Please model this.
Amino acid sequence: MGFQISMIEEITRELPKLRNRTNAVEMQSYMKDIAPFLGIKTPIRRATLKVIFKTVAAPTSDQLGKTARALWKLPEREYQYAACDMLAHFNKSLDEDFLSAHCEYLLTHKSWWDTVDSLGTAIISPLTVRYNLLSLMDSWNQSENIWLVRAAIQHQRGRRTATDIPLLVQYCADHAADQTFWIAKAIGWALRDLAHFDRPSVTKFLSEHPELDRVAVREALKHA
Model:
């Protein structure tokens, strides 16, 4: 049995057993009805998936991409979360083409902050460290899709002193006048991370961009 078929069969057999209808209503409401939910809390979901992931051999990058796409097409939101968990678990199997070949699809379908940010942590940040993907990040940053822009702005979060500060500042500056909530929030979070180790750069950026949305400013100054 192939990786994709095996993984989908295991996940779709085990997760419904954990359904909690009360949680499902609350979770769907919190996530603004982006999708129906099974109502499985994150620790329980991840513990179950961890067991499943240990039963299979390391897959190829393309197998992971096709499996993630298949999970993305299932209705309940936990299946998209499962795809993110799977990609994080098998991160070392992902090749340099994965972000363009598969992740861009995931970012732009059933898009909401939960999966976009999960993909950022699970694969976008580590893969852009592992491979030279600057041209792809530039492309996303210049996209008309707000979720690709958000992913590009946030792709260096957590790198601290390894952050390419001029690049981060440029990406934020490119969208400083954008009043879109999710982009403003991404700028604010990126600047807040930067402020932990280079507050002068953040102070300078804020002074040079008075047009910056108040959401971004508030986030950037949250721990000032």
